[in-house]
Amino acid sequence: MTAAGYDDERHREAVLLVVSELVTNALRHARGVTGLRLSHHPRGLTVSVHDAGDRPPRPRPLEPDRPGGFGLHLVRGLTEGVEVEWRAGGKNVWATVPQPGG
Histidine kinase/HSP90-like ATPase domain: from which residue to which, for each copy (predicted)? Predict the structure, then answer.
């Protein structure tokens, strides 16, 4: 991540949190992870998670008295948004953490 410009702890933690949340969602709600890819481009670092699920990710309503359900809200707050591409046997869910200083 340092070579891609994510050289301070705050930006590295954002990328790691996005990876963790997207992978966790695939494991819990989409029959597992079938692929993971990180790609860097001028807009930022994109985290792509492939899974075998047939439903799009959807945020749960925020309820302070219920544990969990914050993952997609966190990802949306740290990225340019969550995108979904349907493909044979599942989908690709990705989000881009903006380039620091960009």
Answer: 9-96
Backbone dihedral angles phi then psi of residue 97, each to the nearest 5 degrees: -85, 120
What's residue 102's pLDDT? Answer: 63
Tens of pLDDT, residues 26-69: 999 998 999 999 999 999 999 999 999 999 888 888 777 877 77
Do residues 10 and 1 touch, judged by C-beta distance below 8 A? no
> CATH number for the domain including 63?
3.30.565.10
Q: What is the 3-state secondary structure (H, E, C) of the chain?
A: CCCCCCCCHHHHHHHHHHHHHHHHHHHHHCCCEEEEEEEEECCEEEEEEEECCCCCCCCCCCCCCCCCCCHHHHHHHHCCCEEEEEECCEEEEEEEEECCCC
Q: Which domain holds residue 44?
A: 9-98
- Give domain status of residue 1, yes or no: no
